[in-house]
Automatic annotation (TrEMBL):
Segments traversing the membrane: none
Domain Guanylate kinase-like: 334-517
Family: Belongs to the MAGUK family.
Domain PDZ: from-to ranges: 134-215
UniProt entry keywords in alphabetical sequence: Coiled coil, SH3 domain
Protein name as catalogued: Membrane protein, palmitoylated 3a (MAGUK p55 subfamily member 3)
Ligase is among the record's keywords: no
UniProt cross-references to PROSITE patterns, sorted A to Z: GUANYLATE_KINASE_1 (PS00856), GUANYLATE_KINASE_2 (PS50052), L27 (PS51022), PDZ (PS50106), SH3 (PS50002)
Tagged with keyword Ligase: no
Organism: Pygocentrus nattereri
Highest taxon above the source species: Eukaryota
Compositionally skewed regions (Basic and acidic residues) per UniProt: 290-301
Domain SH3, first and last residues per copy: 223-293
Length: 533
């Protein structure tokens, strides 16, 4: 195999690696894929650009001129000019190029290295005290990323927590349990915690802390891989119990939170998945929030004398649900898709359109009924026809996900009917969620609701937003649709994976089809209990 010289560039290394790739019988597709990737011209160009930039960086370049804009006036306008010089002067004095030269001069004349304040006069004396530590941090307008508390026994100001990803955490110099003595030379021994917090937040550019380290400094915690789906609304500015409102992390039901620290049993540190903010925020722990909900319910019952019962089958208090990323593997049965819809959503019509477009991939479970079979019907196609005694027995044995009576005949959808669809490697679409939220079915819940105008100045007839082709509806009917959507959101909102706003049947069908296709090839958040079972 050829050997690279010591000065070989990255793009040369890449070229040599590409030439050595030899497909074999076991990994032929992988090797061909790698060779195609490494052979891309755009990748080679990027490698060359990278090398040039690194080479230029190693030279530690400095500006040739600190006032390029003055060169135009001094050199070109100093005497008679030729035609070419006049043209050059015209170009250099155009607004765009003058702006570029001005920016160049601004950057060239500034020193962007952080400037730390001078050491304190008594620094040498402080070093004689082995326990004292001087910490200097360079920060921008972001918070320091640490909270403090007053030790009740000693009166000392103690670092209560260090927010993951904040300036203090990134420095690695400030730890939980450290005693804070001074901020920028100002003693904090007799200041209130809120005064100290204000002093810290007002410090810009650089900040010097005099700290007595904790007796045993905590090791820097590894970032947690615990993810939680929020099941309730939280705004730290409305929470009087939070130790620091500015450090709180607001979230809404359905948000995915990465809990990076659970050291404090009352206040966890978390980041919102998808948020670009590196600093973690405080959120109430599961136990603390459940206790808060419990106390809030007691207060309401005490004032009204009425109990507020939770929904059957739901946890008493909805706080967080631990989740993980899951992607359907080729050998697994398709996930169940649950469509729940508010008044006017017409989800049955939506299901039938999607299935009619691709009956080989999507289907509904064949329901059971006690009514007599009609002449054109076939067993197991339109319905499973059973006796009333058999239907009642299945209902008592919890074999139906939902059932009811219509014109003295009973109808219901069984769990086995759903399994039968999945056994054919088809995605089953249902409109009932009860008893199906398990690791076996891994349901993906889509909430379909029509677009409804917020208000109407006059009670006139309106074109239905539920499809446009279904006639006209009144303001009273619109209000019923709003109330229906609100009720579903209150009851099932924490379980919804996707909200589909229905403008019309065609666009809603196309959007649902896109959701189903992505569900088969992309990873989604699911309760971790579904994977562990």
């Amino acid at each position: 195999m050829p050997v690279l010289s010591a000065g070989a560039g990255l793009h040369e290394t890449l070229a040599l690696l590409t030439s050595q790739l030899r497909p074999d019988a076991n990994h032929k597709e992988d090797m061909v894929f790698l060779k195609d990737v490494f052979s891309e011209k755009s990748l080679a160009y990027l490698m060359k650009i990278h090398e040039k930039l690194r080479q230029y960086e190693r030279q530690s370049p400095t500006p040739v001129l600190h006032s390029a804009s003055s060169l135009v006036a001094e050199e070109l306008q100093s005497g008679p000019m030729s035609v070419e010089e006049k043209e050059l002067l015209h170009l250099l004095t155009s607004p765009h190029l003058r702006a570029v030269l001005s920016v160049h001069d601004t950057v060239a004349q500034k020193n962007f290295d952080p400037v730390l304040p001078p050491l304190p006069d008594d620094f040498e004396d402080e070093l004689e005290e082995e326990s004292v530590k001087i910490v200097r941090l360079v920060k921008n307008k972001e918070p320091l990323g640490a909270t403090i508390r007053r030790d009740e026994a000693t009166g000392a100001v103690i670092v209560a927590r260090v927010m993951k990803g904040g300036a203090a955490d990134r420095s690695g110099l400030v730890h939980v349990g450290d005693e804070l003595r001074e901020v920028n030379g100002i003693s904090v021994m007799h200041k209130r915690p809120d005064e100290i917090s204000q002093l810290l937040s007002q410090s810009q550019g650089s900040i010097t802390l005099k700290i007595i380290p904790a007796i045993k400094e905590e090791d820097k915690l590894k970032e947690s891989k615990v993810y939680m789906r929020a099941l309730f609304d939280y705004n730290p500015l409305d929470d009087k119990a939070t130790p620091c409102q500015e450090a709180g992390l607001p979230f809404k039901p359905g948000d995915i939170l990465q809990v990076v620290s659970q050291d404090d049993g009352t206040w966890w540190q978390a980041k919102k998945v998808g948020d670009s903010n590196l600093r973690a925020g405080l959120i109430p722990s599961k136990q603390f929030q459940e206790r808060s909900f419990r106390l809030s319910r007691k207060d309401r019952q005490g004032s009204s004398g009425e109990a507020n019962a939770s929904e059957p089958g739901e946890p008493e208090f909805l706080t967080y649900e631990e989740v993980t990323r899951y992607q359907q593997r080729p050998n697994e049965r398709p996930r169940l898709v649950v469509l729940i819809g508010s008044l006017g959503a017409r989800i049955n019509e939506l299901k039938q359109k999607v299935i009619a477009e691709n009956p080989h991939r999507y289907a509904v479970a064949v329901p059971h009924t006690t009514r007599p079979k009609k002449s054109h019907e076939k067993e197991g196609v339109e319905y499973h026809f059973v006796t009333k005694q058999a239907f009642d027995a299945d209902a008592q044995n919890n074999k139906f996900i939902e059932y009811g009576e219509y014109k003295e005949n009973q109808y219901g959808t069984s769990i086995e009917a759903i399994r039968s669809v999945q056994a054919k490697n088809k995605m089953c679409l249902v409109d009932a969620l009860h008893t199906l939220r398990t690791g076996e079915f891994k349901p993906y819940v889509v909430f379909v609701k029509p677009r409804i105008p917020e208000s109407r100045r006059r009670r006139s007839a309106a074109t239905s937003p539920a499809g446009g082709e279904h006639g006209r509806i009144t303001e009273e009917e619109l209000q019923e649709m709003r109330q229906s959507a609100q009720q579903i959101e209150q009851q099932y909102g924490h379980l919804v994976d996707r909200v589909l706003i229905k403008e019309d049947s065609a666009s809603a069908c196309a959007e649902l089809r896109g959701i189903l296709e992505r569900l088969e090839r992309e990873a989604f958040w699911v309760p971790i209990s579904w994977i562990r079972t």
